[in-house]
Structures are given as C-alpha cells and as structure tokens.
Amino acid sequence: MSQERRYSFEFFPAKTEAGHEKLMTVARNLASYQPDFFSCTYGAGGSTRDRTLQTVLQLDGEVKVPTAPHLSCVGDSKAELRALLAHYKDAGIQRIVALRGDLPSGMGMASGELRFANELVEFIRTETGDHFHIEVAAYPEVHPQARSYESDLANFVRKVKAGASSAITQYFFNADSYFYFVERVRKLGVDIPVVPGIMPITNYSKLARFSDACGAEIPRWVRKQLESYGDDVQSIQAFGEQVITEMCEELLQGGAPGLHFYTLNQAEPSLAIWKNLNLPR
Ligand code: FAD
C-alpha cells in the first residue's frame, strides 16, 4: 500500500444477523484489496453502541483490517464515552472517528455532556493521551447547521487544535469545493491530511434525500441525467461510476492524500471505482 496515500472503507453496523453476515462477506472481499483501514459508524445517542463495538472488534480481529470505530458525543455521557474508549484501547484499536453526531428527532439536543466534536476530541486526548489517531469530519460544502462558511472553518480549526490527527470529508460531487476548503484551512495553519469521503452513486432517490439532509449538492447536470434514467438502475450505476471515477482522478491528481469510501455495506460500487482508478492492491 502506498505510503503517501491512504484508502479506507466505511460500514454501518447491521441491524439483523443476516445483514451482519452480509457485511462480513463484503468486508472480507474488500480486505483482499488491502485498504489501510475500515471504519464503522455509531448511532448518535448510543443506539448502535453494542453493535458498533461488536462489528469493530470482529472486523479488526477476524477480518484483520485495522478498524476505526466512529464515536459521537451528543446523547452519550462522559462515563459512557470513557467506558467505550477503555474498551477500544484494551482491544488494541488505534484509530477513532470523533463526531458530534445527529440525534434522531425526538431525542432532544442536550442529553450529552459534550456538545460539539472539538469537545469530544479534547476529551479523548485527556482520557487516553496520544493513544488514538483521531479522525474528524470536514465539510467542503459547509455543514448544514453552520452559521457561515467562516464559522464552519473556525470550527474545523478548533477540532484540529483540540488534537485531531486527520480528517475525512462529507461526500461531495464537486472537486473544486474540496480544493478550496483545503486551501483555506492550510492558510489557517492546518497541516493534517484532509481525505475526501467518496459516495458511489447507486440509487438516485435515496441519494437525493440524503444529500438534502447532509448538505451535499448534486450538480444540476448530474441530477438531470440521473433523473432521466428513471428506474433504469444499470444506467444510473454506469453513469454514477463514470462521474465519481473522474472526480476521484481529479482529486488524486490535485494532491488528495487518499480516499475514504462510504460503502453503505456494498462492495461492488466502491470496488468498481477502485479498479477504474488502478488503485494499489
Ligand atoms: P461538529 O464539528 O461539532 O460541528 C457541528 C456543527 O456545529 C457545525 O455546523 C459547526 O459549524 C457547529 N459548531 C461547532 N462548534 C460550535 C460552537 N462552539 N458554537 C456554535 N456552533 C458550533 N453521524 C453519526 O451520528 N454517526 C456516525 O458514525 C457518523 N459518521 C460520520 C463520518 C464522517 C466522515 C462524516 C463527515 C460525518 C459523519 N456523521 C456521523 C455525521 C455527523 O455526525 C454530522 O454531520 C453532525 O451533524 C456533525 O458532526 P461533526 O462531528 O462534524 O460536528
């Protein structure tokens, strides 16, 4: 695997036994491409606490790819976070993705003791020193709740100052937004790697809904083309693969320090892009 660039695959913990078995099959397949790490999401408020823990330990221990748990602070007490950190540290986990999280509607905002991701990063450093490589989230197209571009940048810098080691971006379909974000944070003295998060396009209606919620803009020409395919899944996937492959080429040629694939627990859409890019195996 390339020293300079890092490649990773993200999963979510499955809800059912069958889903979990499928996830493990997908992970074993992706493991054969020797990614630098896997990561596994965490339901804010602790809704997936046990499933995330179990999935991380299995991916790391049995599938044998270093695996980073996501950890979010809204809705979890310091005692709960401390217990999870100790568990991961004892199990030899070395990387963590530290997030604020989004509480499911109805759970309220103020149930956790830590309000923002920078406070979680600080907490992890206080509790565990330099043990973990801490990833944080970055938003080239601006986090939907941010007051402004500048305040979101300031927040990103706060997370880095609190001790983040590197960052993974929210997905986007516009490489310029990534390059501009990196240029701006470099000018603010941030020198940690900012790795683009890549969302393969497989299902237009789900993607449109999700993108609205997380503030990722689907360019009009991509939207119009995807809409024109209707239920023709093959055409959607073929076009999506081409668009994302070309964007990844542009990102890597422009100096992106790797790629992080949001797999949604499927191997093929990410692997198709991986193969098109001739990434190292
Ligand atoms: P923060 O960095 O805390 O920022 C949240 C918002 O608050 C921003 O608008 C920021 O500008 C603002 N802000 C920060 N500090 C302050 C302050 N002091 N005063 C006022 N405003 C402030 N969600 C999950 O629930 N589970 C997951 O596993 C998960 N994994 C993710 C992985 C990646 C790579 C990414 C990009 C996102 C992930 N998310 C996950 C989604 C994430 O939790 C949401 O985007 C969430 O809304 C913000 O989390 P954050 O860590 O970026 O928050």
Protein described:
This protein has 281 residues and is an alpha/beta fold. The protein has one domain: TIM Barrel. Helix content is 47%, strand content 14%. The chain has a nine-stranded parallel sheet. Helix 4 links the parallel strand 4 and strand 5. Helix 3 packs across helix 4, helix 4 packs parallel to helix 5 and helix 9 crosses helix 10. It is globular. It starts with 5 loop residues before the first strand and ends in a 5-residue tail after the last helix. Bound molecules: flavin-adenine dinucleotide. Flavin-adenine dinucleotide binds next to strand 3, strand 4 and helix 5. It catalyses: (6S)-5-methyl-5,6,7,8-tetrahydrofolate + NAD(+) = (6R)-5,10-methylene-5,6,7,8-tetrahydrofolate + NADH + H(+). Pathway: One-carbon metabolism; tetrahydrofolate interconversion; Amino-acid biosynthesis; L-methionine biosynthesis via de novo pathway. Its EC number is 1.5.1.54. It holds the Pfam family MTHFR. One of its GO terms (biological process) is tetrahydrofolate interconversion.
